[in-house]
Request: fold
Amino acid sequence: MNNIFENIQGDKTLWAVLILLAGFSFLPVYSAASNLAYVSASGNTFNFLFKHFIHLSLGFTFMYLMQKIPYHYFRGISILMIPVVIVLLLYTLLQPGVTDSLTNTNRWIKIPFVGFTFQPSTLAGVILMIYVSRYLAKIKDVEIRFSQTILPLWIPILLILLLILPANFSTTAIIFSMVILLCFVGGYPIKYLLGIIFSGVLVLSIFILTIKAYPGVFPNRVDTWKSRIENFVNKENTTENYQIEKAKIAIATGGVRGLGPGKSVQKNFLPQSSSDFIFAIIIEEYGLIGGLFLLTVYVLFLLRIIIISNKADSVFGSLLVIGLGIPIVFQALVNIGVSVELFPITGQPLPLISSGGTSIWMTCIAIGIIQSVRNGSELKTNNENEDSPLDILKETI
Reply:
């Protein structure tokens, strides 16, 4: 055990933030899972708590392993993983007999023998951010021509987003937004980015028109998106608005101090109370104080991401931290925004708080890579007076 703690490196404040989020998550997950226990007829909430513990344990194991890998290795790993991600997304989209009952689409792959399900789109987001960071760092001192970036940069992005889009529009939109943000930070010309945004809107419009013309290809997809937006605007009495109304009741009931741990009432009526709408349960039980505390922790996480990025020893490391860290905070804001009715329902979990395996694992892997960048920066600081040929070689790769 002592050897494990000795090998934990990186930003100590960031480790504290992660442990704080993960430790706190057991309280709302255990409370909100009572509804799932009742629906599944098992009546045993401990099973859901134990599953959440396993997910977090695996996630922190992945994080620990990632922070031990020198971050520059992820340059090559991202290139190798892009074809793998495309194959996984294609298989997920075309696999028969596995659909989400709410959206009528395939989003998960069942992992044999262990009984867990895996969502490849979440892995795709992490790999794509690493890949884009690598490419932007590679061309940082080169005059950028759009035609030269189409094949190595935008074609892989387009393929991945097109494979995610039919099953998960919100994830596609978030990944696309984060890619644009990363390219902007990485110095990609704004005029080209505006063209990419316009092209993205055009591709989405063509996709919607195609699905409208051939509804049997992806049943109910455009109708689902349309209904969620219309329900958000018009406040119609539907399943989506039922969830929002219950979330608003939970938030209003919580007040300033909340009802107390485990005393939520709306968890018995609110679908997805342990995942998509867990923030509403947190407010109901811990009040405005609990909600502000959680927001403060995420803001602290964002500040550490900015600090680590600024201290990175290379352009790739700096972009890598931004590309992997900012989406976590953005996803948290989207989840919270849905609960307070700032956004339509998206299905995005609250990072390191909501139950669910894939989201926890990919978040932990991303943070582990960020810690690896921090480790590399500390190593360079300790050896800043040494002119190592290996360091020079790494910078030229």
